[in-house]
Design brief:
It is a single chain. The protein has helices at residues 13-21, 32-41, 70-78, 99-111, 129-137, 164-172, 191-194, and strands at residues 3-7, 44-50, 53-62, 83-90, 117-123, 141-147, 154-161. It is of the alpha+beta class. The chain has a single domain, classed as Gcn5-related N-acetyltransferase (GNAT) (Aminopeptidase). Strands 1-2-3-4-5-7-6 form a seven-stranded mixed β-sheet, with helices on both faces. β6 and β7 (154-161) form a beta hairpin. The radius of gyration is 16 Å and the shape is globular. The termini are far apart. InterPro entries: Acyl_CoA_acyltransferase, GNAT_dom, UCP028520.
Length: 198
């Protein structure tokens, strides 16, 4: 069956919380209140369905967001503008089945008309070779390392240049055509909300 990527719905947050906290040491745990703040304010918060079942999610923020993650702050200190993938989680039974690739194709199509860089991190200490290989196959490369003060975990900081961004900015500036695929993934992510932080 095909993979469907769509915006998250509020009634799915309990399932997403369970999926996140079952993902293992490569994903930081969440509590319900923080996940609800992400739901209210994230610029991009989408889920994957396969065979009618929730199989994963991806949460992302633009560089102007007031995110309290030390990894996000690291990117803010090193790059002027970027789109940050805070987390991607795929259910263990679905890993290797194309869900992650579908998410990255979707988030790139969203980000590349708005930001010059796609940014994320992969934890180094947790034998994350599959994750590093996955990101490398998408054109990400390491631009530094960062030890998260809140956990002591070392992360490989990755970016990917979004080559379409310059052409889009040169031709459209901030006035993108009003087309469904160009609209914000989350209409609720108004600038005032994004500036409040999480």
């Amino acid at each position: 069956m095909s993979i469907v990527i769509r915006d998250v719905r509020e009634h799915e947050l309990d399932s997403i919380l369970a999926l996140n906290n079952a993902a293992g040491p490569s994903i930081l745990p969440l509590d319900a209140s923080r996940l609800k703040r992400f739901f209210d304010a994230a610029e991009y918060f989408r889920v994957a369905e396969r065979d009618g079942n929730l199989t994963g999610f991806l949460i992302g923020f633009g560089s102007n967001f007031g995110h309290d993650s030390s990894n996000f702050r690291w990117f803010r200190e090193h790059h002027e503008a970027f789109f940050y993938i805070d987390r991607i989680v795929v259910a263990s039974r679905r890993r290797g089945g194309g869900v992650g690739r579908a998410f990255y194709a979707d988030v790139q199509s969203y980000a590349e008309v708005r930001y010059p860089l796609l940014a994320c991190e992969v934890f180094i200490e947790h034998d994350n070779d599959p994750a590093r290989l996955f990101h490398g196959s998408f054109g990400f490369h390491e631009v530094g390392q960062h030890v998260m003060p809140e956990t002591g975990v070392r992360a490989s900081m990755l970016t990917k240049e979004l080559c379409s961004y310059t052409w889009v900015r040169d031709h459209y500036g901030d006035d993108l055509p009003d087309m469904p695929w160009l609209r914000r993934a989350r209409q609720a992510a108004a600038p005032a909300q994004r500036s409040t932080g999480t």
